[in-house]
């Protein structure tokens, strides 16, 4: 698993703090190299890697772990025990619930949706039935996409805007639709691959080991 937060040499234990100038203008708080906007809440205990920025109205709940150099956007909720690797970008209005794991370099587009219970009922508590959702290294989730819980999104896959993912996604898969289906392959650089399976951006080469499994070839 590519989750570099597990290897942080100096994770920061931090809680929300704020300060004001002598003219009463609210200012952001900063702990070493972690930036937290003054409107955000960060509950204790949690671990936040250096260089991470937490923006307006975000709420980071206790016992989560966030890697270095992440961006946590406006109105984002990071639930208890959530794991986020390094260099992840969580855009505005995303909720990461208990059971969600993001490996390094994951992009979550604005208002994309995660869940953690497959059959919720208001009158029935199912906290013991949370399902894990794992997003592998380098994956992209487009704006307003929905990820039904209990699946794995493969490394460098690309979930198109508005797609609804109901099953596990292979690495490098380009997924579209409701329910989402694979419509092609995409490179680690984010370029759609043609039948030659050569990335037009960086020239990297790929091969299908099976009809539903793509691998990147080493130079």
Order of neighbouring strands in the sheet with most strands: 4-5-8-11-14-17-20-23-25-26
Can you summarize the main beta sheet?
A: 10 strands, mixed
CATH class: Mainly Beta
Number of helices: 0
Structural class: mainly beta
Strand content: 25-35%
Domain module count: 1
Give helix and strand order, one letter per element, not per position: EEEEEEEEEEEEEEEEEEEEEEEEEEEE
Give helix % range. Answer: under 10%
Q: How would you describe what is shown here?
A:
The protein is mainly β and 219 residues long. The chain has a single domain (4-194), classed as Hexapeptide repeat proteins (UDP N-Acetylglucosamine Acyltransferase, domain 1, 3 Solenoid), CATH 2.160.10.10. Helix content is 0%, strand content 32%. The chain is built from no helices and 28 strands. The chain is globular. Mean pLDDT is 89; it is low at 5-12 and 14-28.
Describe what is shown at a glance.
The protein has 219 residues and is mostly beta strands.
